[in-house]
Amino acid sequence: MGVVWANPAALAGLALLAVPVLIHLLLRPEILHRRFPSLRFLPASRLASARRRRIHDWPLLLVRLAILALAVLALAGPILVTPSREQAWASQFVRAVVVHLEEGDAPSAAVDRHGAAIEEARAGAAVSTVIETSRLADGLVEAAAWLDAAPPGTRELVVMSAFRAGSVSGRDLAVIPPGAGVRLVALPAEARPSREVHRLASDGAASVIARHTLSLSAGRPSLSAAVARSSVDLPVAMEGGEADRQRLLAAMEAVLVEGFLVEGDPVPVIVAWGADAGRAPADVTGIGSPGVRRAFDRFVSAVGPAPRASDAAAPAPWTPIWPGRLIAAEQDERLVISGQGELGVDEALGIARAAIRAAYAAPQLDSFEPRTIAPEAREAWMRPAARGDAAAVARAGDTDARVLWALVLVLLGVEQWMRRARRGVAGDADVPAEARVA
Amino acid sequence: MTRPHVVSPAELSSLSDLEFIARTTVEGLRQGLHRSPFHGYSAEFAQYRHYRPGDDLKHVDWKLFGRSDRLYTRQFRETTNLSALLVLDASASMAYPEAPAEGVAPASKFLVARAATAALAALVIDQGDTAGVAAQGRDGVTYLPSRSGRHHLHAILAALARLSPGGAAPVSEVLRHAVARLGRRGLVVVLSDFYDEPASTDEVRRLARMGHEVVVVHVLSPEEVDLPETREVELEDLESGATRVVDPREIRAAYRTAVSAFERRVERAVIAEGLDYLSIRSDRPLPEALRAFLLRRRARGAA
Question: What ipTM was estimated for this complex?
Fold first, then answer.
């Protein structure tokens, strides 16, 4: 049997025990004054030492020390580890089941479809939850948070997905708390029906959006011929120095040749390049709508890290993207991107591609990915669960501090009573017994 | 005539069946309860002596003459009245514990000693003897010569009622000055805490050797015998005003020993002179203590 501390750093607070001792040593009790018939028989030798610096009230000091010590110990979060508790912690399974919804799945559809597998995954768990998500990374974050807050026990995460290529990565799984087991259960990758997609591309001098049908053919995605085309104004505007603007426009034309699958309404994006780009446009506030905020995230994700490292900061409200060279800010319904310095061809292409990605959201096409993550890779991500132990209890915050706090409350009452009793003695000392009765 | 409130009627009535009789011979002017040093012709037969010319023939025992053929004169013990002086210590040290609220039963040593003084004065006067009071309190010296009568008793009670403790006059001084005014041998009762011992006990011894019968009533409060039950305290001497800080918990044992030795010293000094010693605690009922003391005296007197 032992004790594990959830917050051992708090034990340093035990040093505070010196404070009441010092207070008791330094503060002499208020001395009573009484008239007395004669001092003749008071032993003179003891009088000199009567007021020496010493602890005058040991019981009160001990109670105060106990209060302080118990409070510090309670803050440190003690967990009494008994054999029965260890057994209980180890035998209790806490399990989060993350079910990956495929493109087009309605919520709970996956649960209906894979009900038996899900129930099997939950079997034997004292506490469990099922998290349905269309994006595994988000589902894993949610599951990690649930496991952190779950009662102590042996914690496990079960991910049920078709595990199409790109649906999850090792970085996504890193959010799972250490000690929690990870089990990946592959669901059958079902063939998806074809769906309609829109593709942005250039058609000579103009930009057009064409409607296509995406389907899987012999395990490979394929686009049909354009069904309908319509000219659109490119939502990306280029500003700044003429040479840089021309370079960006050329890069934009080049990337539009590749074509982009797009979805939804575009967010206007302004790309300004030049020495004064940080100041243009002047009315940048850094506050934008949720759609612009998503566009900002898409731009950051698409443009990637800076080609050359720098630690330059950006003036508010700009956010450095490539510190010292490329900054971005939200502005009402627009996303403003500003850059300066020499603009290389590759950089111009990257910025143009990222600007398109920021302006248009890409359709979710995971279910059209015919490849799946290799079983070896999935095996590498799996790990057994650490047995539920006191550390898990500590993480869950389920400590035995309540008992200590209760003791602290009781002792506070005792301390209050002792102080009142001493004040009562001191107050009564100067009053004759008869007057007290009267 | 109502008596000033220095002693309760209950306390007085509890002593009404007793007498305060002198154990030694006292000189009185009137015939009374107490033995006189002068032999005379009274009702109480004392002894025979050979007839001397001039003796009253009516006191010659003729029957004895018939039997022995010698003339003997019968002698009788003459009794006289008692002259008592009650010396009350009214110094500041007697005002302990501090004076209680008005109307509350006596608690300080002074109130207890004053009640005892009043009770004894009433007893002496009620039995036809004379009593006087001497004290020196906050308002100076109070002295009422030894007289008899209800009016004088009332005067004594009124004087005691006016008396309040204060000052630092030692009881030995009060004794010396009061007894100097006594014209003849009598009974002197001293009620004090005797903190000026040995001066006070020396004075008692001197009085005893002058032929006075002295009764010592030693009045102490339980708090000063045992120290107050408290933590560290600054004690101020009621008479000198000097202060000392003490921790009663530390010094209690030594203090008890010293006070106990003090009490024994006073008692031994008194008893060594063949005098009566009465110890009174201010928290104990006064009538019982006085009654027990008077009964003891009467028993010894009868013996």
Answer: 0.76
